[in-house]
From TrEMBL:
Gene Ontology BP term (one): proteolysis
Taxon lineage: Bacteria, Bacillati, Actinomycetota, Actinomycetes, Micromonosporales
Keyword list, A-Z: Hydrolase, Metal-binding, Metalloprotease, Protease, Signal, Zinc
Protein name, UniProt field: Peptidase M14 domain-containing protein
Residues in Peptidase M14 domain copies: 374-700
UniProt-listed Pfam families: CHB_HEX_C_1, Peptidase_M14
InterPro entries assigned: CARBOXYPEPT_ZN_1, GH29D-like_dom, Peptidase_M14
Entry similarity comment: Belongs to the peptidase M14 family.
GO MF annotation list: metallocarboxypeptidase activity; zinc ion binding
Species annotation: Polymorphospora rubra
Signal sequence residues: 1-23
Length: 796
């Protein structure tokens, strides 16, 4: 028996150190989620999270005989450890003052794991009987920074179990032995519990001549070969000799950024204008607060009704010992000074509890007009309050005085010679997430290049004359100010939707809404994964879809200007280039509808041009494995902006993640750069991704100028006994509509789809003589004349 079990019936008191800064966040209803229920197997034992204030508390847990795992991780407010506990043990530890949180796993998980294991074994045994089929999805080499070369392969096996092992072997050029370049085992990649394909977890450094072919082999017996092609690096024409770049010399806050785009509009009125987005933000402002107490049960906090800059910061609260026996609890208010005289007993000892003081402050009209009071995170507040000398409340905001505390007027810079909706629109927006400091200077650099090169560079002039460009460098100004001056890790905006239980001062860095989870397509409220209903979560989706003014501004812009056909939401970091779909439901990995075959190919085709432009600045290559739909290369992001643009408005919507990993040849490792790299690195990222944004404008200009019909052909892929298999090939990204009964095809006819995820065009099999009729339509709406071909089939 552990010492803890022996102590379960003995009252124990544990002195608490500093209060933890975080606790279990509330659920969708804003309330603390109940402790996870376990089955009664093994007495309901579960693996529980425990946050110790310091190493001394961990030592106390060990001394009590608590079954601690080897897991330990620093977290805000202490050190997270994991313990195997029964419900009585969890209760006892909480009563002793330990911060025991939710269950990581319990016997229900065990039963599910056992069932999953049995199913996996059965699947593996069934698979072992057959040779698997390998489908090569990608086989590429590329250069990145300083000419370093890398390999990136993706292969799908028909055997999806975890026992399937794939190996890649590559040569050193044409007519060289198959494995002369090297051999490496690939990593199985699964998402939401589903097998996707095998790959290298990171591109593999290539120290031999470029390979011509690669051979993949499976321990199941499957094999496949493929040519190794070059990724990116298509030569781009050098800009003209007078082309200007590099207008950024520091990280900038939203006030500076906004002033810069306003000055650009004033300087270049013929080709620009400022658009005031209609929804003002909450503002860089907070209510003033103070917290009193030393333990959860005797702690309370107060919050002013006025914003800090509007008088809240001038409020003071005192908790005094009257110094006499048998005194009642009283609250006195003079102006913004609140004095709480605590109650005493016959011996003169203070008896007022936290709950009683809270009730007194909220019940006294003079004090309740100034502030509200709450116990600590829903605690009953039965502990006796300690006297406290005068405490001045504060909104704890650190930005200099010139940063306005009022609701912020977000602005868009519209660039174009003809700003009347007659030209295709492109929407470039940045800093949706506050801590991503490189992104706003990327948007600003792009705007500067466009207006300052208009008279100097023919290509720039063609872009500005042929497009309607909307640049919003800062979508989230309040959060960005907070990130720069208060808490650099701030991701969300500053709107606090938490109730009193989760609004104590120590939670102030956790308030806000993730603006890239607040849109109305594939959202948390629709059942999609990748967002949270907890108001303190980093991915909090908000109380409802488009609850936030910042999200409403995004939607207003594309609703008001329906000529917008392209958009780019620039984030950091990691080096990604992505598009829809961006969300799925984890159960069964139910993904939002994928773009059709022609549109998906358009996304891929444009990526080559755009990412080659990024690479042209200093050689950075966005990895092939970090290029593609959001759900395929990153994760599910319920309620994101790109999905809202694509599914609601048919906008070709991309996402950048600037800040690609940097290869360190000394360690042979890829090094991440973070949200706020030193400015030397941040500057380079802004320059190269401004290149990418300019390339997006070039793609849009090509779309506007495209009047050429696509050309397609039917390709017979194979013949068997009584069957013929065929597909179509087209000279540019386009959709193909076809019929098999000799009728005239229309856009309501069957449309060519995918063979599978990243597997190219589907193949169609017929079993009788067939007249196939078809035509293609490209992304610009150019329509090919209908074609016809009669296919025969061999005799069975």
């Amino acid at each position: 028996m552990s010492r803890l079990l022996a102590l379960l019936t003995i009252p124990a008191v544990l002195g608490m150190a500093a209060l933890p800064s975080l606790a279990t966040p509330p659920g969708a209803d804003g309330q603390v989620e109940p402790e996870r229920k376990s089955t009664f197997e093994q007495n309901g034992v579960a693996l529980m999270r425990v946050v110790a204030t310091d190493q001394a508390q961990i030592d106390q847990l060990n001394a009590l005989g608590v079954d601690l795992t080897e897991y330990s991780k620093p977290v805000p407010g202490g050190i997270e450890v994991h313990a195997v506990l029964s419900p009585p043990e969890s209760t006892a530890l909480r009563e002793m003052g330990f911060d025991v949180r939710d269950a990581i796993a319990d016997q229900t998980d065990h039963a599910e794991n056992v069932a999953d294991r049995a199913a996996a074994i059965a699947s593996a045994e069934a698979a072992e009987a057959d040779t698997d089929t390998l489908t090569v999805l990608r086989a590429e080499w590329f250069t990145s920074l300083d000419g370093n070369r890398f390999l990136s392969f993706e292969v799908k096996s028909s055997a999806t179990d975890a026992q399937t092992v794939l190996t890649a072997s590559w040569d050193t050029g044409r007519d060289t032995p198959p494995a002369s370049g090297g051999t490496a085992t690939m990593t199985r990649f699964s998402d939401a519990g589903q097998y996707m394909y095998h790959r290298f977890s990171a591109p593999l450094a290539l120290n031999t001549p470029q390979p011509a072919r690669v051979t993949f082999t499976s321990n199941r017996g499957g094999t496949a070969k493929a040519p190794v092609t070059k990724w990116l690096g298509k030569p781009r024409p050098a800009p003209g000799p007078h082309y200007l770049t590099d207008f950024i010399d520091r990280y900038m806050d939203p006030t500076e950024i906004t002033e810069r785009i306003e000055s650009l509009s004033e300087e270049f009125p013929k080709i620009t204008q400022i658009i005031d987005l209609p929804y003002l933000t909450n503002g860089y402002r907070r209510k003033a607060q103070a917290q009193f107490g030393s333990a959860a049960d005797n702690t309370l906090y107060v919050t002013t009704r006025a914003w800090g800059h509007e008088g809240g910061n001038d409020t003071t609260v005192s908790m005094i010992d009257p110094g006499a026996a048998n005194r009642p609890l009283t609250v006195l208010v003079s102006g913004r000074t609140v004095v709480v005289s605590l109650a005493t007993d016959g011996a003169g000892a203070v008896t007022s509890t936290a709950a009683q003081v809270v009730a007194a402050l909220n019940g006294e009209p003079a004090s309740s007009a100034l502030l509200t009071a709450s116990t600590y995170r829903g605690n009953a507040g039965a502990g006796v309050v300690r006297p406290v000398a005068t405490s001045r409340l504060s909104d704890n905001l650190q930005a200099p005085a010139h940063i306005s505390r009022e609701p912020f007027q977000t602005k868009a810079l519209r660039i174009g010679r003809a700003r009347d909706g007659s030209k295709p629109g492109v929407y470039l927006f940045c800093q949706q997430h506050a801590r991503e400091w490189v992104t706003p200077i990327t948007c600003l650099e792009t705007a500067e290049r466009l207006v300052r090169n208009y008279e100097l560079d023919t290509k720039t002039r063609n872009l500005v004359n042929g497009l309607d460009i909307f640049v919003v460098p800062v979508i989230n100004p309040d959060g960005a100010h907070y990130s720069m001056y208060d808490f650099n890790g701030q991701r969300k905006n500053l709107t606090n939707h938490c109730d009193a239980v989760w609004s104590d001062p120590a939670q102030r860095n956790a308030w806000g809404v993730d603006l890239n989870r607040n849109q109305d397509v594939g959202s948390l409220f629709d059942g999609y994964s990748g967002a949270s209903s907890s108001c303190t979560s980093g991915s909090y989706a908000g109380p409802s879809e488009q609850s936030e003014p910042e999200a409403k501004n995004e939607d207003w812009l594309v609703e008001t200007f329906p000529n917008i056909k392209f958009s780019m939401n620039t984030h950091s970091y990691g080096g990604y280039f992505m598009w829809a779909p961006g969300a799925y439901k984890s159960a069964g990995r139910e993904v939002l509808p994928r773009p059709d075959y022609g549109t998906e190919n358009y996304f891929w085709n444009a990526s080559t041009k755009i990412l080659s432009a990024v690479q042209a600045w200093r050689g950075t290559a966005i990895w092939p494995g970090r290029t593609g739909p959001v759900t395929d290369v990153l994760y599910s992001a319920a309620g994101n902006s790109a999905d809202a643009h694509w599914y609601n408005h048919d906008i070709i919507a991309w996402n950048f993640e600037v800040g690609a990993d940097v290869w360190d040849p000394a360690t042979n490792r890829w090094q991440p750069v973070g949200f706020q790299p030193d400015f030397a690195e941040g500057h380079q990222e802004a320059m190269e991704f401004a290149n990418g944004q300019i390339a997006i404008l070039e793609v849009a200009k090509q779309y506007a100028a495209d009047q050429t019909r696509p050309t397609s052909e039917l390709l017979v892929k194979g013949k068997g006994a009584g069957t013929t298999t065929f597909t179509f090939k087209v000279d540019e990204p386009a959709n193909i509509y076809y019929t098999l009964d000799g009728s005239e095809p229309t856009t309501a006819s069957a449309k060519l789809g995918f063979a599978g995820y990243r597997e190219g065009a589907e193949q169609i099999t017929i079993s009788a003589r067939t007249t196939v009729r078809w035509f293609s339509v490209d992304i610009s709406g150019n329509v090919e004349a209908a074609q016809e071909r009669v296919l025969n089939v061999p005799r069975a």
